[in-house]
């Protein structure tokens, strides 16, 4: 089965033509979450048409357009429910009409972490499993849950997809979502500079001399035995691992897949979380597998075929 | 529809004959979680037969026996999966055979928090809602989730039912379940003496002079402005409210029902959690209702008819 796919992030959209578990062609279009989605739509449409031409695929041969969106999305009604400081105009855009008029095919929208889960389930680390939790560690923390081969969506389409917004510390930092001490507020890309600056010894640490407080810098300096970076890294590992136990206790998966940009340090994160889960999760049936995502930035695109063939 | 019901707690089993939303007759039988379930089975069978006689109901007129059990249960296979220091012998008992031979009817087992949810959904605070989270605050903390009118069970029957075992503090207290900082380990009946004794000023507080550190004592002394009791009460309220936000973010309910023995202080707990949820939960569709359970100890018994009529 062929499909068109868009994976929209905060600063770019990846457009693609996919066939089953392969990406036939893809292209990145620059976007800007702050100014909104509307100004980027013409460029996205042009890119998709170019990719169709390049691959010799007709739009009418595609099962539809699968649109992975970095927001709370109701795929059943093709509506964007809530944005969080990115593409805030998207709630008022009629993307179904846009897809129909530009490409003549149907649209299905879904949240980006759910799309990553579908991709990993169909073509990546979760192949062969029916009960899956996905965690994406990046600027924010995303989550998604699949039970018995079906994405968990819930009454208002937000079940499972706020995995980054489960409190890890009931007295922790304020989160952009409005809650307190979410895993995202304690150990995400946007939160880590706030957490780092509170750390005793930060001002005189090597981290303070970096151009920016990033996970890349923290993991690099921790390897080099900088004590502040080590303490921060270890704290993040604990937050992620504790959050993973919470998601296991909530959704009862066989496997947890961890993706996102921070997984450049998968060789440290995966074994830590796996060991923590084996020690601390209450799963009398056996051991939950913890795996690094395999598809990287392609996961959301490869979720296209399972999304478009899903009956909901 | 008529049914037999057993609600098993740590120190007693309530046996009942129910008809739809009414309890026709019930009786409490003393049990002992530490010595196991087997020694109590004859007394339970005698009690159920006596109740049948008293109400003039024949066992064969009952849709079955619904057994609410304080453990991890797979109702699909009628198996007890994991006990936590209560009735540890129950995993090896053939309760289906026992029910058939004593009463000649079928058995369905379910976890006690799930049964309380079913009861409140069918006859109590959650009537008319299809998407429900139940929290039971007591010696332990139980949880259960219903999505689209169906109990969430998951691959290994533990989805949704470990709501008390979501970490509230990733660096918190060790929990009996093996995890760290669970809401149960921070703010349940068994945990609160541990947390209280660590509190600055505890040794010279009025709480230290009580015969036991209980929620009853803490809420009473907090009303009387004892500063240690006030700090403990406020900490518990925050743990429960933060945990509730996490469950809302996980399961996307319309309503959260809070039950359990601690809800003797419902007049303080319900408004606090409702206000916290309104302030901190990310629910763009509207406001989640937070309600005190209405059925008290009858909730598990009144879950009998929905359990026995559920298709799974």
Describe the protein.
Two copies of one chain form a homodimer. The first copy, chain A, is α/β, with parallel strands linked by helices. Chain A has two domains: 128 residues, Nucleotidyltransferase, domain 5 (2-Layer Sandwich), CATH 3.30.420.40; 169 residues, Nucleotidyltransferase, domain 5 (2-Layer Sandwich), CATH 3.30.420. In chain A, 34% of the residues lie in helices and 22% in strands. The first copy, chain A, has ten helices and twelve strands. In chain A, the strands form three sheets. In chain A, strands 3-2-1-4-7 form a five-stranded mixed sheet. Chain A has a five-stranded mixed sheet with strand order 10-9-8-11-12, with helices on both faces. In chain A, helix 6 crosses helix 7. The longest helix of chain A is centred in the C-terminal third of the chain and has 25 residues. At the A-B interface, helix 7 of A face helix 7 of B.
The count of helical stretches of chain A stands at 10
Strand order of the largest sheet of chain A: 3-2-1-4-7
How would a crystallographer describe the biggest sheet of chain A? 5 strands, mixed
Rg calculated over all Cα atoms of chain A? 20 Å
- Briefly note the structural class of the backbone of chain A: alpha/beta
Mean model confidence by pLDDT of chain A? 96
What is the chains' assembly state? homodimer
CATH class of the largest domain in chain A: Alpha Beta
């Amino acid at each position: 089965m062929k499909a068109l796919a868009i994976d929209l992030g905060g600063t770019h959209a990846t457009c693609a033509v996919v066939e089953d578990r392969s990406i036939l062609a893809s292209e990145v279009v620059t976007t800007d979450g702050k100014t909104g989605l509307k100004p980027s739509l013409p460029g996205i449409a042009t890119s998709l048409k170019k990719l169709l031409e390049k691959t010799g695929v007709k739009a009418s041969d595609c099962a539809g357009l699968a649109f992975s969106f970095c927001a709370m999305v109701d795929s059943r009604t093709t509506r964007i429910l809530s944005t969080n400081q990115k593409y805030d105009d998207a709630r008022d855009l009629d993307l179904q009409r846009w897809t129909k008029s530009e490409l003549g095919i149907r649209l299905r929208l879904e949240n980006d972490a759910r799309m990553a889960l579908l991709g990993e389930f169909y073509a990546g680390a979760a192949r062969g499993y029916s009960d899956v939790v996905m965690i994406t560690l990046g600027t924010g923390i995303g989550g998604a849950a699949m039970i018995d081969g079906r994405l968990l969506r819930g009454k208002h389409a937000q079940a499972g997809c706020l995995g980054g917004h489960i409190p890890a510390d009931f007295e922790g930092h304020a989160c952009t979502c409005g809650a307190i001490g979410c895993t995202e507020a304690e150990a995400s890309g946007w939160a880590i500079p706030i957490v780092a600056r509170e750390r005793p010894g930060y001002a005189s640490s090597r981290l303070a001399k970096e151009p920016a407080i990033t996970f890349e810098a923290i993991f690099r300096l921790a390897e080099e035995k900088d004590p502040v970076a080590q303490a921060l890294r270890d704290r993040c590992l604990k937050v992620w691992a504790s959050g993973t136990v919470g998601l296991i206790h909530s959704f009862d998966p066989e496997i947890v897949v961890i993706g996102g940009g921070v997984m450049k340090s998968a060789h440290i994160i995966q074994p830590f979380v796996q060991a923590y889960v084996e020690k601390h999760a209450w799963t009398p049936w056996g051991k939950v597998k913890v795996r690094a995502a395999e598809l990287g930035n392609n996961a959301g695109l490869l979720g296209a075929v399972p999304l478009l063939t899903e009956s909901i």
